[in-house]
# Entry
Amino acid sequence: MMAGHQMTHDATEPASNEMKRKRLDGRGLFITYFTAFWVGATVLSLEIVGSRILAPFFGTGLYVWSSLLAATMGGLGAGYHIGGKLADRSRGRSIIGILITGGICLLLITVLGSGIVSMAYEMGLKLGSLTAAVVLLMPPLTILGAVTPSVLACVHFDAARVGNDAGRLYATATLGSLAGGLATGFFLLEYMSTTLLLMLMGIVLIILGLVWTVVFRKFFRPAYFILSVLSAVLLVLMNLVTGPGRFYSVYDNKKVLWSSNSVIGRVEVADGNLRDSAGNLHRARFLMIDGRDQTIMELGNRSGNSATGPEKGKSWNAFAYDFHMVRRLMPSAQKILVLGLGGGMLPLSLAQSGIEVDVVEIHPDVIQAACDYFLNLPPIRNSRCIKDGSVTTAVISEGDNEARMKMIMADARPYVRTYSGRYDIIICNAIVKDAPPYYLYSAESISEMKSILNRDGILALNLLSGCRGNEGRAAASVKKTLRSLFNDVRVFSRYVNPENESANYGDVYFFASSKSMRFSPWPGHIADDPAFEAEIAASNQILSHEIMLPDNGALLLSDAHNPMDIWLADNSIRWFNALR
# Structure
């Protein structure tokens, strides 16, 4: 029995020794896990940076994020498959070439990215955003996906514990993705341009490839050093050469009249109560996106007192009145473009003043809500909305006044870029969930708006902000960017004053023109019409609230470096909590 037992043991011993492999030393393990961590961080960071690259052309809506996610998952899936085959064929030696090639791909995006997205834009929103995401992100993500299988093949794990070791490696990569996503979204994009961040990630990948040649000397190839150094220097040099208002305080008891799940969130129309600053109760109608008010319209005073507040059918939003300042800056204006519809109160009052109004709104649900619940309010006013493709024309009758306004379903920046006509005035009031689309405030975007203004035209922008800290930096940066393109820039706000610490939050209005702006008397037909009493009073009042913004470390905002949405990230919560 003993002999039989001994013979069995001897027969299995060689097989056991065959499976057993020498484990890595401390240095090798550190490089292995750091590689997995950095690659994981780069994957998610690249996806976020990709959204920044696509935003100036396609916005940041559902189609863009769907395209980014599809390109990410497709690239990683292909990378896992290809990486496994390469790992088996080369016994892990492919890891160095994969890391260096991945780094070079990221550096190439900094040079070719803008051109690729520009060409993809011609394909339209859906196909264009998908094409841009696939062409830009899928190659580097495929390469990054091939790293983990190659790492598993080249390190000398114990085969008896390969499942445990593989699990640790994938967990490390996932933790890297978590860290990379948080670092990019919460910190890096505030202080670094997309170009610089891509260069950083690419160069670190190249350095990692070179480190592998040193730590694992059997993988050394002189060509790796020459290829990586020359490519990195060339691409970095190419980059250096080419460069890369409110009147109310509390609302309650809302009853939802209509709702829809939109690409921007849940769009709802509700009737409810609100109290003005004097505590008087009003009935109002709200347009909300994800529970945050975008437009508030008066439906009637319920207190029975001579309560402060607008007339029935008028807006509670200050900007709907304050922006009428443009009529005094340019009384002869014939055509206005408004970017951002909301409930349509601002463009409605402008159209009723006898001016031709075009409104650009990206979300069809918002257009429907404006037509059905705000522009149409029997018996005060009646409206008909006539849809023709992407254009909806509203014909609004109120008393003896009949006004028309054209609502175009489009993303603001692509519309501006492709429009072939001219406007006298452009009003940018595109606030979604109380945060402006940052890509509309870059120098490139403002230059595009200027290109469709008449020679002495006026650009007006609204920013829900403050004048101190990061909020003040955002407002100061908008002013600095405007000054780089226009000769005259003026800033007004009834709620924000750098000299008053308690006045540090609300609508800040920017007016810019290539000529010196002066305020003229109101056009006669407006000044003599009682229907415009509120607009005239509000605009006259805000004239005494011109403010001088401190520098606050202002940046010249660009498509490559524009952290406005990060600086103003707290606005949505702050505004929402204030209303509650």
